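Thread: XRE family transcriptional regulator, structure

OP (GT): Posting the sequence first so everyone is looking at the same thing. Length is 288 residues per the record. Can we get the structure tokens written out before standup tomorrow? I want them in the notebook alongside the other entries.
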Amino acid sequence: MAGGQTSGAATALRVVLGRRLQDLREAAGLSFEEAGRALDVTHATIRRMEKAQVGLKVPYIEKLLRIYGVTEQEEIDTFLALVREANRPGWWHRYRDVLPEWFSAFVSLEAEADQIRAYEPHYVPGLLQTEAYATTVLRSGMPHAPAAEIERLVALRLARQDILTRPQPPLLWIVMDETVLRRPIGHPNVMRGQIGRMIEAAASPNIRLQIMPFSAGHHPAMYGPFHLFRFPVPELSDIACAENLVGAAYFDQRDDVSAFREALDRMCAQAAPVHRTEAILSGIRKEI
């Protein structure tokens, strides 16, 4: 993923396993080419395994572990069990008929993160959208899509929200431009309902909402929306995702991710404090 577009829907676990394979290969003193020859595959295949760009085949991994000097059968069995888990389709797989590859990766990261931070200048983030708001936004963005496809996409968007009420939900911390709340989306009742949903969400202990008012002027992230994911496993570094009209770019290099994190930190300092969010939202809802 480093600094470019992902080529597959890698799960966080697959990324961790790929990095563990890299550590084992390097500890064994083997190059990509040498590992590839031992497995009778190209060096590029080894590289893609370590970068989580392909699925991990159990027979390949078992042989690699032995090539890398792993001799304890219990350790091998544990690693292979994790490989099988990493290759198992996520719940979102049932929406594969309407789910673009780039967004499949996004949903996977979203589901496995324990902290999700984001800046949104255009729309209410999908994790907080009501059904009516989501339907209106999707119809606007996909004017030629059949009604059935829109319904499937709305169902997917609502299903993603289950992570917020699971036993150990992630921290969701959103900085949202005031523009998001002022721009009419559908009938006024759609916006009233949506703002009501955000007021309810803001009361949850695992959700922080901050509004960036017009009066704050320019700020560090006026280029577009982005997300920053953090995971509960130390082997997996933070990952940033910047969306565009036709997809998204994913970044996991330290300097790149630090730039996104610094922008968010500066915006959090500029935006209205969390304790003011409910009052701001209630005031805007009364104006609609």
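GT: Both are above now. Quick notes for whoever picks this up: Confidence is low (pLDDT under 50) at residues 1-9. The chain is about 50% helix and 10% strand.
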